[in-house]
Amino acid sequence: MNPTAQRPRWATISIVVLVVAAIVALGIWLAPIVTRGRVEGWVRGAGAWGPLVLLGVQVAQILVAPIPGIFVPVLAGILYGPVIGPLVTVAGTFLGSVMAYAIGRGAGRPLATRWVGAPALERAHALIGGKRWLALVPLFLVPFSPSDALCFVAGIIGLGPGPFALAVLFGRAPKDAALALAGAGLFRFGG
Question: Quick one: 24 and 43 in the same domain?
């Protein structure tokens, strides 16, 4: 093997490891800071800009994940009721999901191609290609599923942007809207 050919690969791996470590460290650092009370205080303190602040928190929750995914939609319903709450959370969910997909497609795909090879990615794409992308919908609907990670993976394996957006709209959006409606007191889950 040519040692100079290995240098760029190790440099890339080192950069990815550092970025992942920085994201994990940021999440660990933010976890005690980003509490329900603080986020609620930030949103209420923002006045008329509160829904945009909450939308930004929803996007950040998907990309960095220092906050449990169930928290923001419920808070949106509590603070903004059964109309604005679901609208804010669905918009944040869609934006965050699309951003995660774009990161996976832009940065993750070339890296994954180097690590696992193009044939493996093509096999993964074939598993959910065509109409099989519909399998993402129930995965997004299941509580506590790794929805955020699935958005990154969808971009990495080359799922088309149209089918991905539809999967988010039919899977993630209804679940988060339902959580916001529950936060607004329109219905309760369970007994």
Answer: no
